[in-house]
Amino acid sequence: MVFDCDGILMDTEANWARVQRAVAQRHGLAYTDAMERAMMGWSAADVATAIADAAGADRALVHADVLRTEEETLTGQIVPLPGALETVREFAQRLPVAVASNSTRTILGVKLEQAGFAPHLSTWVSSEDVAHGKPAPDIYAEAVRRLGFAPAEALAVEDSAVGASSAVAAGLVVVAVPSVPDGDPVPAHHRVASLTDPAFRVLVARWLG
User: Fold this and answer.
1) Where would one find coiled-coil regions in this protein (predicted)?
2) Phi and psi at residue 13, in whole multiples of 5°?
3) Residue 94 phi/psi, 5° resolution?
4) Lowest mean pLDDT among 72-76, 78-82, 92-96, 166-170
5) Shortest CA distance to 61 belongs to which of 84, 36, 27, 32?
């Protein structure tokens, strides 16, 4: 089983939007609701490229600004979503569990350690561990490779269209827990309301046989 991180395991999406807004404004851009929706689930590198291109700024400098701002704003913001830690702990006792995230390697490690997920995970894959972040399939493909499964043997749990597209492209079976009901359609094989939704437990139980 492979979980996305932000929006699935922990409530950091709002913080990520604050990071994007702060960096955009420092480079003279108005951060709109449309920009926030468009960049939901993007990696730091992709966000930095978009802001740098729009502002006519140096991409490397903007990327460094994004990473620095995210690290500074993480303190006190890492809160597991309801049922997430319990769900990961429970499933990790029965099968290998991984996390596949567009976060950078350092930031992802900080999140998983501070929120208490790290001890229950077999591995985690960041956007820096592969050639291309989501929506490319690389992150999910690497996660299942590390777990020792074929893609079709693994469940991916995602909340965004960007992440779900990545998992579908990698060949995983996707369970969508949409965080934005009226946002972009999330491609998935199954849909549940949350990790505490009884339908999610039934689905996984059937999957495990």
Assistant:
1) none
2) -60, -40
3) -120, -20
4) 72-76
5) 27
